[in-house]
Specification:
- Helix 2 runs antiparallel to helix 3 (78-92).
- The chain contains six helices and four strands, in the order αβααααβββα.
- The radius of gyration is 34 Å and the shape is flat.
- With 251 residues, it is an alpha+beta fold.
- The N and C termini lie far apart (80 Å).
Length: 251
C-alpha cells in the first residue's frame, strides 16, 4: 500500500486489538513485541476454591436432602422438611460457586495485570499504518539457504481501525556449496533494500499524517469559531427577547 490515496484511507485510524494476539505474526520483528502477561497464580487458587465449594455444595446438599427425607419419613415434623429443602437448594445451586470463583478470579487478575495491560496498549497504539519490509533466512535439510523478503502492508479494517497483511515479495534459494561470503552479501543487500523501502514509506506516511492533523486542527478551530458565534447570537437573541417581554415605559 503505497499511494497517497491509500495513505489517506489509513491516517487517523487505530491499530486493531487482534494485533496483540492472533494477528501478531503479520507484523515484522522490527516493531518489537508486546510484553507477555504471565498467568496469575492467584487465579488458580481462587478457581480451585470455587471447584472445592462446588463439590461440597453438591454432595453436601444431596446428603442433607437424603437425611431430611429419611427423617421426614420416619418422624415427620418441620425440621426434616427444612433440612430437605436446604439440601435440595445447595445441590441445585452448586454451579453458582464456579461462577463466583470465575468472576472473582477475573477481577483479581485484572487488578494484578493492569500495568502490563497498559504497557501492551501503549505498544499497540504506537504502531503506525505504513508498509514495512523484513528479511528472514532459513536453512533447508540439504544445507541450502533460503532468503525471503516479506512485505507487511496495512489494511483498513472497519470504520476506524487497521491491521496488517504479510506476503512474500521475494524468495531466493542458495545451494549449500555457494560461497558463504557471497550468500551473506546478498542477504545484506536485500536487508538494506528492505530498510530503505521501509524508511521511504515511513517518511511518506508522516507527511500524510501531518497533513491530516493540520486539517483536523483547522476543522476543530472552525467548529470552535462557529460555536462562539452561535453562543454570541444566542445571548443577543435572549437579551432582545427579554426586552420585548418588558412592559412599555409610561410617559
Amino acid at each position: 500500500m503505497s499511494s497517497d490515496v491509500e495513505f489517506a484511507q489509513l491516517v487517523g485510524r487505530r491499530p486493531d486489538q487482534r494485533l496483540l494476539g492472533e494477528e501478531l505474526g503479520q507484523l515484522p520483528e522490527s516493531v518489537g513485541r508486546p510484553v507477555e502477561i504471565p498467568p496469575d497464580p492467584a487465579r488458580a487458587k481462587i478457581v480451585g476454591i470455587g471447584a472445592t465449594m462446588t463439590g461440597i455444595a453438591l454432595f453436601g446438599g444431596i446428603l442433607l436432602a437424603i437425611v431430611g427425607l429419611i427423617a421426614e419419613v420416619a418422624d415427620g415434623g418441620t425440621l426434616p422438611i427444612v433440612v430437605l429443602a436446604v439440601g435440595a437448594l445447595l445441590a441445585l445451586t452448586h454451579w453458582g460457586w464456579v461462577h463466583i470463583a470465575e468472576i472473582t478470579a477475573n477481577s483479581v487478575e485484572t487488578g494484578h495485570q493492569r500495568e502490563l495491560t497498559a504497557r501492551r496498549e501503549d505498544w499497540l497504539a504506537a504502531i503506525e499504518p505504513y508498509t514495512r519490509w523484513s528479511v528472514t533466512t532459513s536453512v533447508e535439510n540439504d544445507g541450502a539457504i533460503e532468503i525471503v523478503k516479506l512485505v507487511h502492508r496495512p489494511i483498513p479494517l472497519g470504520e476506524d481501525r487497521f491491521t496488517f497483511a504479510r506476503t512474500v515479495e521475494l524468495r531466493e534459494r542458495h545451494d549449500g556449496d555457494e560461497p558463504g561470503a557471497a550468500v551473506t552479501e546478498r542477504a545484506e543487500e536485500i536487508r538494506r533494500g528492505a530498510a530503505l523501502d521501509t524508511e521511504r514509506e515511513r517518511e511518506r506516511y508522516e507527511v500524510a499524517a501531518a497533513a491530516y492533523r493540520d486539517a483536523a486542527m483547522r476543522h476543530e478551530d472552525e467548529e470552535e469559531r462557529r460555536a462562539a458565534v452561535r453562543a454570541a447570537s444566542q445571548a443577543l437573541s435572549d437579551r432582545i427577547n427579554t426586552h420585548l417581554k418588558d412592559p412599555p415605559l409610561s410617559g
